[in-house]
Amino acid sequence: MTLMGSRTTRRWNYHVFLSFRGEDTRRNFTDHLYAALQRKGIVTFRDDKKLERGQVISNELMKAIEESLFAIVILSQDYASSSWCLDELQKIVESNQNLTVFPVFFEVDPSDVRQQKGIIGKAFEKHEGKFPDCRVTGWRRALTQVANFAGWDTRNKREAEIVENIAKTIWTKVRVKLPSNFAHLVGLQPKVDTLIPLLKIELNHTCFIGIWGMGGIGKTTLARVVYEAIRNKFETSCFLANVREESERNGLVYLQKKLLSSLLLGNIEINDSYDGVEAIRNFSCNKKVLIVLDDVSHISQLQSLVGDKDWFGHGSKILVTTRDIHLLTAHDQFEKYEMMMLGRDESLNLLCRHAFKRNYPQQGYFELSKKVVDYAGGLPLALQVLGSFLCKRSIPEWRDTLNKLKQNLHKDIFKILRISYDGLDDEEFKAIFLDIACFFNREEKVEVTKYWKIVVFIQ
Predict the structure, then answer these.
(1) What single-letter DSSP state applies at residue 343?
(2) Does residue 310 sit in the same domain as residue 354?
(3) Which of 321, 338, 355 is the last residue of a domain?
(4) How many domains does the structure of the chain reveal?
(5) Which of 23, 66, 67, 88 is catalytic?
(6) Helices vs. strands in the chain: H and E counts, helices first
(7) What is the CATH number of the domain that holds 289?
(8) Quick check: is 25 in a domain?
């Protein structure tokens, strides 16, 4: 896995490098911190036990330090007694221009570390005479420097609380260092700028908002962008993707367990959906949470996962995406946000990014690009699929594709739109069929037949 920083060309393999004295903290504090960082998706380097057997810091560790964004140094009582740890620390401090360092004072006084007093001082008494003066001086300088950085003092603090605080702080800082996955998206920023104020994040009340619109219009992408933008403002958060599909495949209890696990509420025993409701309500009622339920298709999913505002702590925000506005109306607590199609200029921009890898058509393709945009009708999914399909194809191939599209939908577009079609009951389908049929009064039979081929194809 290679990550690239947003402000520099330096490449990263790790978000965090953990420096610690294995005998002191490997089986307790460091282990718990490593697990907390992993849960938040923070890629962390933690050395293996066998690496401690050497006398000199290994090339592997040197390389890992150089390829990390942050270093967390767990300064325990015996940390300074290890020449290995001190060499590692010196390397970390020397990399400070490219590496942000956070000390954790694990049951030691920060002033003892800074001035090498107490148990830290006794360790250095043993080092002097055993190692060259220049090496010991470098270690002292490194300890003094790292002790002056902002960090955490664990004395008289609850370990679980400190571990979660460290993981949350690091995740907040990691996010701003990494490139956005959404910077290339077309037409999304105005929607984000409209939706976030609706959530009223600054107010301490629970808010339910439903994003609704047809399949392929970009509801999930919008919800994900908003989620990533605001998740650090909450105690815990969960993006529950593909709710419709997961519910059909694995059932509601599976989704309830997944939600509880993602909210870091533990692996709670749930026998049925009623138990799940009680667990979600009881364990999250005093927490400020952010939850996104993506692609909700049935009222039971809402009732089982985010039943009522009093299930969650003050300031919680619940965001749902759905194709069916009636679900939001039936649940009664949702403010509705309708996802709109892209405008013509935005549509052309999106098509060109996928077809030509730039914001405008290549020479000779402008009129063809406009025809594809007209065919897609502002649907982002259609523009992305067709743009990717037409990429690097010749003008005759573009024309041939447009002719084929008049007869049949592209299979990837068809698959997404078919979900909405399958969700209709007979009465709904009949009503829609009659509404559409009215548009063709007094039209030639040949023309009408051409338009209705797609309906026959879907059936």
Answers:
(1) P
(2) no
(3) 338
(4) 3
(5) 88
(6) 22, 12
(7) 3.40.50.300
(8) yes
88 is catalytic: yes
Phi (first) and psi of residue 56, to 5 degrees: -120, 145
Which has the closest alpha carbon to 74: 153, 140, 14, 139?
A: 153
Q: Extract the runs of DSSP E, i.e. beta strands, from 95-206.
A: 100-105, 152-153
Q: 58: domain range?
A: 3-177
pLDDT in 10s for each residue of the chain, 459 residues: 333 333 444 568 899 999 998 787 888 899 999 999 988 888 999 876 545 444 455 777 888 888 898 999 999 999 999 888 899 899 998 876 678 899 999 999 999 999 999 999 999 999 998 899 999 999 999 999 999 999 999 988 888 889 988 998 898 888 777 666 665 678 888 899 999 999 998 888 899 999 999 888 889 999 999 998 888 788 888 999 999 999 999 999 999 999 988 886 666 788 899 999 999 998 888 899 999 999 999 999 999 999 999 999 999 999 999 999 999 998 888 999 999 989 999 999 999 999 999 888 999 999 999 999 988 888 888 888 888 889 999 999 999 888 887 777 666 666 656 655 555 555 555 565 666 666 666 667 666 665 555 454 444
Based on the fold, state whether residues 263 and 281 are members of the same structural domain.
Answer: yes
**Residue 324 identity (one-letter amino acid):** D
Query: What's this model's pTM, rounded to 2 decimal places?
Result: 0.64
Assigned domain for 182 exists: no
Tokens at residue 459, please? 């059936």
Only one residue has tokens 């603090």, namely 157
